Amino acid sequence: MTSDPDVVVDVRDVCKDFPVGMGFRKKRVLDGISFQVRKGEIFGFVGPNGAGKTTTLKILMGLIRPTEGGAQILGHDVSETGFREHIGFLPENPYFYDYLTGREFLRFYAELCGVPRGERRGRIATLLEWVGLENAGDARLRTYSKGMLQRIGLAQALVHDPEVVFLDEPMSGLDPMGRVEIRDLILRLRADGKTVFMNTHILPDVEMVCDRVAIIVKGKIRYEGQIETFLKSGEERPTQVVLARVPVELAPKIEEDFESEVRGFQDRIEVRVAEKDVGALLWLALGAGADVISVTPQRASLESIFLNAVEEVGQ
Amino acid sequence: MNSFRRIRAIAVNTVLEAIRHRVLYALLFFALILIGGGMLLATLSYVERERILQDLGLASIRLFGVAIALFVGVGLIHKEVDRRTIYTILSKPVSRTHFLIGKYLGLVATLWLQVVIMAAAFVGVSLLAGAPLDSGHAAAIGLIAVELALVVSVAVLFSSFTTPMLASLFTVGIYIVGHLSRDLRELGRQSDADSVRYVTEFLYRVFPDLESFNLSIQAVHGLTITSREVGFPVAYAACYAALLLLVASWVFSRRDFR
Ligand SMILES: Nc1ncnc2c1ncn2[C@@H]1O[C@H](COP(=O)(O)OP(=O)(O)O)[C@@H](O)[C@H]1O
Ligand SMILES: [Mg+2]
């Protein structure tokens, strides 16, 4: 298909039909999707629930076969097994062998991946520390919390130091702390030069970590590229600014200068301005003796893109 | 070499999973009760005390062996798929055939471990009761172990494509037909209808001839057991199980893990 060494994952015109009911009828779950993941990036495969993200990932992992089309990872067809020593995978809502301890669990996967016996112990210790489970390594997995399972799952995906890591909804179902932990680990993976492919339906996660995205809705790719480009130019992005102790004469001036509506409540006001005007607004407000309470970028864009895309497909 | 290591890792993990499972201990517990209970039953009888004791012992080993084979054979394969642990395994450089072979070997090792424990109980009870023990008993128990390896390959085959419920039913069905197929053929041969003879002959050829693994009578009655009576079933089981695993691996490799 492609010979570009920078292309790590190459999906070409993949369709997948699932049988419905008794299996006589078919439902097209993936409808001719194509995209590429490049070396060293965090690639977000983004879409609402039921869009086909997990199905795509299962095709990449060789767990299901595409009805049409094909996919390559590191230049190998996904039906091969040998190249899998260069990839790691964390499934959606992973369940693991709960009768094993964290350390036994990682040792099992290290053996499967052919990590030499002499290196195993050190590698496992490093990983446990890396995911912050060095004190839980000898506890059975059944005693682990959801966040700990997600982290040991990540360690499992990395046990053989793979080049590419595939994560299915790595942050869903976690509390805010757990999400931050996983997010930081993903960012560290990129810093280590790994390529990360990540499925998610959580928009803030996408914006926080992904370099590039493909957006899938109802089995079709709606967009592939930089998120920034996709979120329109950042300049135009609306930002909400809340100010307090605002002198009376300031509010009308703001309305005039920034051509934006000012809403007041008690001694506070709320203004919406374009991102490029935020600096000027703050300068003016602080100069007039007001306090700045909050500056919040209004990034609902991906959400609305989902909705727009859903509407388009629906038509 | 690498494949060997991977298969071994899966097999070891399967044994670990089995021996950390409570149900297995429950089954083993009842098996030991039954084997030991033979002593009590045997005391009730004045004739052939030792034979009753050993008959019951061997039958218990077979019965609970098959129950455990069914439980682990169907249960542990299906659990990997159901709980999706198989996703991470197959995302490693492990082919589905490796997975199935590793799983199979782990299941056989687990079963043989159980047989060893039950056999130890059998020997203990026999010694206590002063019943004779010789190589015939070893051959009988050995062939039970071999039969279990065959039965679990049937369980693995069905588990490779169907639900645990159906896989258990089919396996039990094959087990029963397998034990009857020899008698059925004898009955068929005495029948006048060609069709009956044809069907019973067919059953005998297709289903495993499990009665050939049953040396209990010879062992308990101290009859001589020829090397052919042991060697043939062992070779038969090896070929049969290999064939079933081949089919299972073919089916499993084509399966979508939706
Ligand atoms: N085992 C299955 N059998 C039939 N349909 C399925 C199965 N798994 C998923 N689907 C359907 O395929 C579509 C895509 O599912 P999935 O890839 O899991 O979506 P996502 O991961 O984006 O939430 C959904 O409409 C879902 O109903
Ligand atoms: Mg999903």
Could you provide a short overview of the structure?
The complex is a heterodimer of chains A (315) and B (258). By secondary structure, chain A is an alpha/beta fold.
Description:
The complex is a heterodimer of chains A (315) and B (258). Chain A is of the alpha/beta class and 315 residues long. Chain A has helices at residues 53-60, 102-112, 117-130, 146-158, 176-191, 203-209, 227-230, 250-258, 278-287, 301-314, and strands at residues 7-20, 25-38, 42-46, 68-73, 76-77, 87-90, 164-168, 195-200, 212-217, 220-226, 238-244, 262-265, 268-274, 291-297. In chain A, the strands form three sheets. In chain A, strands 6-7-8-3-9-10 form a six-stranded mixed β-sheet, sandwiched between helices. A four-stranded antiparallel β-sheet of chain A has the order 2-1-4-5, covered by helices on one side. In chain A, strands 12-13-11-14 form a four-stranded antiparallel β-sheet, covered by helices on one side. The mean pLDDT of chain A is 87. Chain B contains ten helices and no strands. Chain B has helices spanning 2-19, 22-43, 49-82, 85-90, 96-129, 135-159, 164-190, 194-206, 216-220, 227-253. The longest helix of chain B is centred in the N-terminal third of the chain and has 34 residues, at 49-82. The model of chain B has no long low-confidence stretch (mean pLDDT 89). Chains A and B meet through β6, α2 and α4 of A and α1 and α4 of B. Bound molecules: adenosine-5'-diphosphate (ADP) and magnesium ion. The site of magnesium ion (MG) has 4 residues of chain A, from α1.
Strand order of the largest sheet of chain A: 6-7-8-3-9-10
The ordered H/E elements of chain B are HHHHHHHHHH
Task: Please tally the helical runs of chain A, counting DSSP H or I stretches of 4 or more residues.
Answer: 10
**Helicity of chain B, in percent?**
over 70%
Gyration radius of chain A, in Å:
24 Å
Instruction: Summarize the amount of helix of chain A as a percent range.
Output: 25-40%
Strand content of chain A: 25-35%
Gyration radius of chain B (Cα, Å) is 20 Å
| Helix-strand makeup class of chain A | alpha/beta
Largest interface: A-B, 35 and 26 residues
Distance between the termini of chain B: 31 Å
- How many extended strands of chain A? 14
Strand content of chain B: under 5%
